[in-house]
Each structure stands twice: as structure tokens, then as C-alpha cells.
Specification:
Radius of gyration: 16 Å
Number of strands: 7
Shape: globular
Strand order of the largest sheet: 1-5-2-6-7
Largest sheet: 5 strands, mixed, barrel
Structural class: alpha+beta
Distance between the termini: 45 Å
Helix content: 10-25%
Strand content: 25-35%
Number of helices: 4
């Protein structure tokens, strides 16, 4: 199986803790989709998602991860699997080779257009995009997406510290 990973799943080392066979293949683009923050988080914020687009220029960048089919059951964690589903997708790697992959997409009941991501989550996505070496123009697009400051200051400070940000 090949997974097109975006957002938090781009951290292949962390992903491999759930799916031990996970190996990065290459960065890739997912044509015909938009990256959005509309996944319904359990903390009153939006999480990353991809959604199909009619825009012929729509493109999401991420990482192709190869994994053993026998580990598919590792994906079905009841804490998040009720809101996400795997969909088939055609992706293009860095050399424009075609890959038949699957991508996690939020199910309709797990989407909200009325929430924004928290600042620390937005920073996390940007850090992961840089670590994955996604194209700079795409990272710039992610950087200007709106977000809000997490009202839970203790959680915010903990998350920012974990990301390596310190505020004076």
C-alpha cells in the first residue's frame, strides 16, 4: 500500500510507531485536491484535511509512504477513525511518476467550515512541510492560511515548547 500523507502523517518516523513498515518513498503532489483546515478537532479547532476540487490547478503536496498491506488494521484507531476514511488517489512523485495511493479524508460529519486551526497546530504543519522539503511556494501558501491563538494558554505553551518555540 502507498499512502499520500499530508499534515501530521508526513512525519514518517512518528507514523512508523503505528505502522512499523512505513518508509518514505518521495515527496509528491495530489492533483485535483485542496489542502484545507476544516477537520473537526476535539479541542474546538480545525485540523488539516484535503478535499476534491474542480479547479484544474488545485494541488496538495505531501509525502508518499510505502507500507505493508498487512498493517492496514493499524489505521483503525477508534479515537479518530470514525471521522476519517481512506480514499484512492492518483499522485505524482518528484519525477512526475504516477502512483496509485490512498489518502485520509475527513468524512462529511467530521468537517466544520466555522473553525480555524490553533496557532501551534499551524506552526506544526509548517514545520512538517519544511522537514519534508515540500516546495517553498507551497509552504508559503500554507503560511498565509488563517489561524487563531489557542485560548487554553497552558496547552498552547506546552505545544509551542514541544515545537521548539519559546516566547518572551
Amino acid at each position: 500500500m502507498i499512502l499520500f500523507a499530508y499534515a501530521g502523517n508526513m512525519n514518517v518516523d512518528k507514523f512508523a510507531k503505528t505502522v512499523p513498515s512505513a518508509k518514505k518513498i518521495d515527496i509528491a503532489k495530489l492533483p485535483g485536491y485542496n489542502f484545507v483546515f476544516n477537520g473537526l478537532g476535539d479541542d474546538d479547532s480545525a485540523k488539516a484535511n484535503v478535499e476534491k476540487s474542480f479547479d484544474p490547478d488545485a494541488m496538495v503536496w505531501g509525502v508518499l509512504i510505502g507500507l505493508d498491506d498487512e498493517e492496514r488494521s493499524n489505521f483503525y484507531d477508534p479515537t479518530w477513525s470514525i471521522g476519517l476514511k481512506l480514499e484512492p488517489a492518483i499522485c505524482l512523485d518528484g519525477k512526475d511518476n504516477i502512483h496509485h495511493a490512498e489518502v485520509f479524508v475527513a468524512q462529511p460529519h467530521a468537517v466544520s467550515i466555522h473553525l480555524l486551526p490553533y496557532d501551534w497546530y499551524h506552526h506544526k504543519i509548517l514545520n512538517l512541510a519544511r522537514q519534508a522539503e515540500l516546495p517553498e511556494h507551497y509552504i508559503a501558501q500554507l503560511a498565509i492560511m488563517p489561524y487563531k491563538v489557542d485560548p487554553d494558554e497552558i496547552r498552547r505553551q506546552r505545544k509551542m515548547k514541544k515545537l521548539g518555540f519559546t516566547e518572551s
